[in-house]
Amino acid sequence: MKVIARVPAKINLMLSVGPVRSDGFHELATVFHAVSLYDEVSAVHADAVSVSVSGPYAEHTPADESNLAVRAARALARRARLRSGALLRVHKAIPVAAGLAGGSADAAGALLACDRLWGLRMPESRLSALAAGLGSDVPFALSGGTAVGTGRGERLRPVPVGGSLHWVLAFADGGLSTPEVYRRLDDLRSDRKVPAPAVPGELLAALSSADVDALAGLLHNDLQEAALALRPALGDTLRAGRELGALAGIVSGSGPTCVFLARDGVSAGALAVGLASSGTCASAVAVTGPATIGT
Ligand SMILES: C[C@@](CO)(OP(=O)(O)O)[C@H](O)COP(=O)(O)OP(=O)(O)OC[C@H]1O[C@@H](n2ccc(N)nc2=O)[C@H](O)[C@@H]1O
Ligand SMILES: Nc1ncnc2c1ncn2[C@@H]1O[C@H](COP(=O)(O)OP(=O)(O)O)[C@@H](O)[C@H]1O
User: What does UniProt give as the signal peptide span (predicted)?
Assistant: First the structure.
């Protein structure tokens, strides 16, 4: 049997970063939004867990035991006290270290695919706890849709969205390291008192009514300042997107991908073409549901 999980990338519509906690993580309040750009993770029975990687970003992805899909499958086998293994194949269409949680998508895909392959039917709450042990973004990658994340990002509450929203992702050459971006933010605000993180109610209201004009004024990312300090060229990308008609643009998560809000699907297509013709690789995406699993 072969099980295939298709797992979306995420963007952060708002990322409020609070003080550093005693475990070294930052307290967050974020709005995760799964978008229509997918990695695929397939699993077949094998004696041990291993992975091979294909697709446009294969060469930037580790194919050894540091691969998050391998770590996830092994963690699941340990939790279920299984000796089973799996040959995992990851098709990487989500750029690596891009602020789009592609590694988390692969970890979630491996959990879902191996749970089905090994016939475990593990309850969602246990899978989510395992996911949180693999990375702060992995629980969201399991559930998808749109959700507020708190804690270090692993505590989730679904958020209703009243209609289709259209986004354009502008990809950068080369990734940014998430720990480095958080460290740079700490340096940048070492002389400031950092308030508790929060997602404004107005943002949730704008999502619930799919009011793109209101939403445009509410997109925000506390990590953007640090990502721009590490990669100043992102400032040009953000300006280019706005000049080409985006309602708003921010860096997604720890970057360097920039995400632009478009008024509708046609404007999103035109914006992606405009960015591409000025030399920035870009793609129009829309919100999407949870990961899908098939055999
Ligand atoms: C910034 C965000 C926004 O959603 O994602 P990306 O944009 O990188 O995908 C997340 O906070 C990243 O989540 P994830 O990539 O799963 O991070 P983890 O593996 O848990 O942690 C990697 C490192 O990021 C820092 N980290 C992460 C989460 C958090 N709440 N506080 C932190 O300080 C820590 O330095 C940690 O060692
Ligand atoms: N399956 C995987 N896909 C992508 N990156 C992976 C994977 N497994 C491990 N990694 C490592 O995780 C790091 C973060 O990857 P990724 O999730 O793509 O970035 P981000 O946190 O910016 O969204 C990368 O530096 C990469 O080496």
Answer: none
